[in-house]
Write a structure and sequence with these properties.
- By secondary structure, this protein is mostly beta strands.
- Helices cover 2% and strands 56% of the residues.
- It starts with a helix and ends with a strand.
């Protein structure tokens, strides 16, 4: 199969790319030498796209390292030359007098929060001529420095990456897509929840080395994510022992008296087991929250949440050609009252227990000629249990819920994953960086649900003790729901993928990336080919202007939760007239005929301009369009009769955006950024159906619930006075859309008819870093939502309720403080 893919690679494309070095011809009386540079990090891992410059009497020579960390100068004058190597995220390496002959290996050091020496220099930002993908990135220091609510959860910092929007459940939507349409990688392995594709795995924010998002022009290496790639990279130890502690002191609140508010400590430790050979890294984080809603009565007004997580990593370099890395992530969450709110008092919500385990091992072997082979294995498991807080009947009223929750859930999703990647450079009419790879996955989803009846009452109505909607005459109900029995079930899927990718460089400043990907899974059982093509051209020799363009086909992975829905049971709804008489009933079941399904197909194309402006300001402007066809949707009948809902390929998604991004980086890690995104995210079938989603209307077109047509974000980290630093973050966007429903759970105004008010949040913090008792410390304090903007997260969308369009669950101004113990230098 790998041979066939290699033959199918787009080598027939007439294309050219960026050469690795520009070298002026030496004078006739000057001897010349071949000179190679190999760039690695402090743990021996190759550093790609590092900028290498040689400065001598005949001018400046430059090149960029390839995926093996190597770049070559073919014709370098003899004599000592000044050497400078830099890469964003690393400290600059400089050598005043390098002898240009043979091969020189250079180790770059990742930027650290506490510097090793006082004279280190951060690498300056630059337009990367070898980067064709539409990419945005936050460094680990950015994650630490940006002030934002819930800094204990890295998902909230994703909000400050252009084209990433968080919904009310902290699920990221990349380029306007569903969460499950984004491929999420943790240190190279897929960690999306195997059944529903959500981002649930948590690692300490102090453990992250970088967060990278690619929304378009994504290489063939990455599949299963029509929206793009969200890549999380965590740190590893080096030859210095390091430790840091954050938020080890609790906070208190005065709501109905003084009580504990929260404590969310984080602790990291790293260092060598054997210097130069074996290193370890461990990051543990925890959380305890006590949430009090004063508007609710005593006994219904308090929720407690606790969570613990740990990331343990080990890297060993048994030989000079081998790098072995292993990791284990553990998460456990206990939410005493899940979805607790002013409309859902404590006893009406279930206890929620979730856990996640992710283990992985990866081996990288380098061969002669810059060839690299990578082999990896991973296993991840996600568990969920929801248990009601009692057996009282569950009642929905226009003013909120009553009784005890109706659902008892027990689910478990697992993924076994094996991958391999092979990198092989070649010279043929220029340089080719060839990559080949394969990925095998085994996925299982086990589920068991028990549901009790739901009574939905009209405004001002009550249900007598011991009575039901069906036994009362006249009935006070608008809707009464009972559920059919569910039996334990397990759904499986096998996935296989392979790809071939080329980066062709034939003449200066022009790079083309053709690629081809093959995917197959056990449910759809179709052989899927996804061609990709991207190109980038640097308009000037100084590298200050770059244009990029590309188009690609992406096939979405099969959503196992949709496939397993028929095994979750059935639902019977009884409808009542305002007079109390039953008018109709409606049976809901779900069915999947796998023989009729095809894989959802998306076409993504984009065009981008990058420009370095005066005063070291970098501009990026980009247009993206993604068109999805044959996406999965359960189709609802047109009337209120019994029906078997069938999974079909009838959904069509459309996303388009225009983005303008500006950033200015200063010395000592200071930065200011701002971005504006004008976008539209819509579908011809905007409603999602399930047994637990009581919307009973036919499908309607409209925007997705996270659609934000206008969105502006900005953040910065700047020096102030007397050693203080100031950080801010800001988001302003159009409010999310929602639909209006009646007391029988029918849509009367489709999504997009109403929107939440405009969202605006400004966060501002001050931080002082200092040294005391021989250690480094960082003390921060400031306000989230400085303007006290009443940003609502909930709305009464019952059109028959007197409180219709009443917004609640406001995000108010809050003072937060953070203390970090950073250890020694």
């Amino acid at each position: 199969m790998r041979t066939r893919l290699s033959v199918a690679l787009f080598l027939f494309l007439s294309s050219a790319g960026l050469v690795r070095a520009q070298v002026p011809s030496p004078p006739n009386n000057t001897a010349a030498h071949a000179f190679a540079i190999i760039v690695i990090d402090e743990n021996g891992v190759a550093v790609a796209s590092a900028r290498v410059r040689l400065l001598g009497p005949v001018g400046t020579l430059w090149c960029e390292t390839d995926l093996a960390g190597k770049c070559e100068f073919a014709n370098v004058p003899a004599g000592p030359l000044s050497l400078r190597v830099e890469r964003e995220g690393f400290y600059v390496f400089s050598l005043p007098a390098a002898q240009p002959s043979g091969t020189l290996e250079i180790a770059l050091t990742h930027q650290q929060e506490v510097r090793e020496t006082v004279d280190v220099v951060e690498s300056s930002p630059a337009i990367d001529p070898s980067q064709a993908a539409a990419q945005e990135q936050l460094s680990g220091l950015d994650v630490i420095n940006i002030p934002y609510p819930n800094t204990r959860d890295y998902r909230y910092v994703l909000n400050f990456i252009p084209e990433v929007v968080l919904d009310r459940s902290a699920q990221p939507h990349v380029a306007g897509a569903e969460s499950y349409q984004t491929l999420v990688l943790l240190d190279g392995f897929n960690v999306t929840q195997p059944a529903n594709g959500q981002l649930l795995v948590r690692v300490s924010t102090d453990a992250l080395r970088s967060i990278r998002v690619e929304t378009s022009r994504v290489p063939a290496e990455y599949g299963k994510g029509p929206a793009g790639v969200l890549a999380l990279e965590t740190g590893i130890g080096d030859d210095h022992y390091r430790f840091a502690t954050t938020n080890f002191l609790p906070s208190f609140q005065n709501k109905k008296g003084w009580t504990l508010d929260k404590v969310d400590p984080r602790f990291t430790v790293s260092g060598p087991i054997k210097k130069g050979k074996i290193w370890f890294f461990d990051a543990i984080d925890g959380e305890y929250d006590k949430v009090i809603l004063p508007a609710l009565p005593k006994g219904e007004d308090t929720n407690t949440i606790w969570r613990v997580g740990n990331l343990a990593k080990l890297q060993a370099n048994p030989t000079t050609r081998d790098i072995l890395t292993s990791s284990f992530v553990f998460n456990r969450l206990h939410d005493e009252h899940f979805k607790f709110s002013a409309l859902a008092p404590a006893t009406t919500t279930p206890a929620d227990v979730e856990n996640a385990y992710v283990s992985s091992i990866k081996e990288q072997h380098s061969f002669a000629g810059e060839k690299l082979l990578e082999v990896g294995f991973a296993f991840d498991q996600y568990g969920l249990q929801q248990v009601p807080n009692g057996g009282t009947r569950y009642v929905l009223t226009p003013e909120g819920a009553q009784g005890n929750y109706y659902l008892h859930a027990d689910a478990n999703a697992r993924r076994w994953q094996a991958l391999t990647n092979f990198y092989m450079p070649r010279q043929w009419h220029g340089r080719h960086d060839l990559m080949f790879g394969a990925d095998l996955d085994r996925i299982s989803y086990a589920q068991f649900f028990q549901r009790s009846p739901i009574s939905a009452l009209r405004e001002g109505q009550t249900l007598a003790a011991g009575a039901t909607c069906l036994s009362s005459s006249p009935s006070p109900c608008a809707l009464y729901t009972v559920f059919g029995a569910s039996v334990p079930s397990t759904t499986y899927n096998d996935e296989a993928s392979a790809y071939a990718q080329d980066r062709w460089a034939a003449f200066p400043r022009f790079l083309v990336e053709p690629g081809l990907r093959w995917d197959w899974d056990e449910i759809v059982r179709h052989h899927l080919l996804s061609p990709r093509l991207a190109a980038t051209y640097v308009l000037d020799s100084a590298g200050n202007t770059k244009i990029s363009a590309g188009v690609g086909v992406v096939h979405a992975s099969t959503n196992l939760a949709l496939i397993a829905l028929p095994q979750a049971g059935s639902r019977q709804d009884y409808f009542f007239h305002s007079s109390g008489m039953q008018t109709s009933s409606f049976l809901t079941t779900f069915a999947v005929d796998r023989n009729l399904l095809v894989a959802p197909r998306f076409v993504n194309w984009s065009l981008a301009l990058e420009q370095k402006l005066p005063a070291q300001v970098f501009l990026k402007a980009e247009f993206t369009r993604r068109s999805g066809n044959r996406d999965f949707a359960y189709n609802v009948p047109s009337g209120l009769g019994g029906s078997n809902f069938a999974l079909q390929n009838t959904r069509e998604d459309r996303y388009s955006s225009f983005k303008v991004d500006l950033r200015r980086t200063f010395r000592n890690r200071y930065i200011v950024t701002g971005s504006y995104v004008r976008s539209s995210s819509r579908s011809n079938q905007a409603l999602d159906y399930s047994l637990d989603n009581p919307v009973l209307s036919p499908q309607v077109p409209g925007p997705f619930p996270w659609d934000a047509p206008n969105r502006f974000t900005s953040w910065g980290w700047l020096p102030l006075v007397r050693g203080f630093d100031a950080g801010y973050s800001m988001e302003a966007r159009t409010g999310f859309p929602f639909a209006a429903i009646n007391d029988q759970q029918q849509v009367v105004k489709p999504p997009g008819s109403y929107r939440f008010p405009m969202y605006f949040a400004l966060n501002f913090h001050l931080e002082k870093r200092f040294r005391a008792v021989g250690f480094y410390w960082a003390l921060r304090g400031g306000y989230d939502n400085v303007t006290n903007r009443q940003n609502a997260y909930a709305v009464n969308n019952y059109i028959n309720s007197p409180q219709f369009l009443t917004f609640s669950a406001f995000d108010r101004r809050a003072f937060t403080a953070r203390i970090r113990f950073l250890g020694r230098k």
